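Memo to structure team: turn this sequence into structure tokens by end of day. - J.P.
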Amino acid sequence: MAVPSRSVGVQEFLEGSRKAGVLLLDARSPGEFAEAHIPGALSFPLFDDAERAEVGTLYKQEGREMAVERGLEFIGPRMADMVRQAKALFAEQPSRRPIHMYCWRGGMRSGSLSWLLRTAGLPVVLLEGGYKAYKQTLPEFMGRDWPLVRVGGYTGSAKTAVLHALAEAGEQVVDLEGLARHFGSAFGNLRRHAQPTSEHFRNLLAEALTGLDSNRRIWVENESRRIGNVHVPEPFYKRMIACPALEMLRSMEDRVSHLVGMYGGFETDLLREAFEAIGTELGGPETREALTALDGNDLATAARIALEYYDRAYEHGLQKRAKDNRHPVDAQGATLAQCAERLMAAADDMGL
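Reply from structure team:
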């Protein structure tokens, strides 16, 4: 006998899916899943990309009945295998809580797959309106009055590392560059990590914000709209730049030392590629000098040359945002933990 069906709205679905031991399945095609999905979900497609395209075309051109028949032709031979896979995944969850499942609109795909799994005795909760409904809730969520405090500073100021020190000190932190898998410059992704799409970055950001106390400050790095190939969601970005920025003042020695420590383990060829990528803006003589320094393993000189370029770009950005709410914090010669302490003290003094 099939387990009874149950569908819930976005908020209840997300709250349920975040509980320990809950299996969250995405019934959309692999291509849809790769583009973006609810964080924590596993891809469990009813159709592959080609099958989805064919069924969708039939639905538009021939109607629901023909599309359903073709869909059954695709999934019929593998129904037993899908049940076995789902049971194996479910058995790994000792909580025995219901499987949470969604597709694009919460209709045919997740409904059909839910029927199959429920017939096999597995409990399933569906998302009403599917991924589309979830997606529609995010602009308002992103634009809330988050009590953000930006950590600013010139390139090499160790902003990300200081964010981690703030987290270790018990502060609420959202690491935008960590979510984007990019440090935000020509040197920001030397290991060629695959970045999430902007849509999935938004989903990851929403998940990071979920559960934070909106009555306590939340630290973020003072980012531009784009981090590598990823764009910060506009509602969140607008909120971010409206909040105060505590600008760490670091010495050139601090910054060079941080960059040498950060990039010293990379292959010279990767660093050369990054310098060549900014060669036009950096200037021919400066680029050649930097490359010569790299060849001589003089990373400090190369770092100083890079900083001259990034300082000009940073100062240009400051001029464009002259009315930005910035407050200097002296952090010269300070350790990461000391930087965090000085930022917290400054925020306390400002009542943030």
